[in-house]
Description:
The protein is of the alpha/beta class.
Amino acid sequence: MKILVTGSVGFIGFHTTKRLLERGNSVVGFDVVNDYYDPAIKEARLKILKEIAATTGSQYNFIRSDLADQQAVNDCFKQHSFDRVIHLAAQAGVRYSLINPHAYVESNIIAFTNIIEACRHNQTPHLTYASSSSVYGANTTMPFSEHRGVDHPLSFYAATKRANELMAHSYSYLFRLPTTGLRFFTVYGPWGRPDMALFLFTKNILEGKPIRVFNHGNHTRDFTYVEDIVEGVIRVSDDIAQPNPNWDSGNPDPASSNAPYRIFNIGNNNPVKLNEYITAVETALGKKAIRELLPLQAGDVPDTFADVSALVRQVGYKPSTPIKQGVANFVSWYRAYYKI
């Protein structure tokens, strides 16, 4: 198969592209390589992907361009015929969306429109795209289920991700384009983003600087190891979305439709308090953190907990990497990458 992976040198996109190349797929990577965080990490990921392609004999073509550029997206689809599209590019981060919402319109709304339009006009067999656990917003019923409504986002970032899900349904309904949205739950692991908590905690602890612990470390997150996320992404991409034959318009299921549309959670199904997460970092580093305790940040939800039963039923997979192992893997990568 030939697969387009957008955001292919981003955190999750890199790991996904790597796995696809290793299994022998032909991959086209599309990434603008912006400076939201250190582009050097993205360039290092790109170098690895090219080396893997050369070693395995898999084909990897990289397009360095902006998905918000409609002509660039259309040119990509004219040049290549895709069996699958995995759309992972986005402007990430809850807090940055409070500062620069226009970046989220460009990357999460306009870019998504360009991709889904290209998929429509080129009869792409299946579009799989990244959503987020942030869409659950003000919901407090745990675990979070795809079968409940999610119309009270607490950040603009979450609102753009929810918009993607609604946009996808309209295209699945109008044009019978098979789409699957994946709600990721707090992804972490090697090659992670420098703006994420694990990266910041590790850096500051090693440098003897305080770490900022919001909500006094009492909120919980369903931390999910990146390789587990990738396994779910690829299994779902391989399994083309179909209409739900039992869908009832009188009692509509938000996670499916009479169109080829569906939504899945991908999470560890095992929420952990932030303080426990920090303890795992301390253990892996062999060094205690200086904790600066702060209130919950604007836009953050107190807790996340993924119900993954639908994912298990559909593709027979459930994330399972323990926090201690995943954090230790990240710390090993961090030390090697920064030569510490």
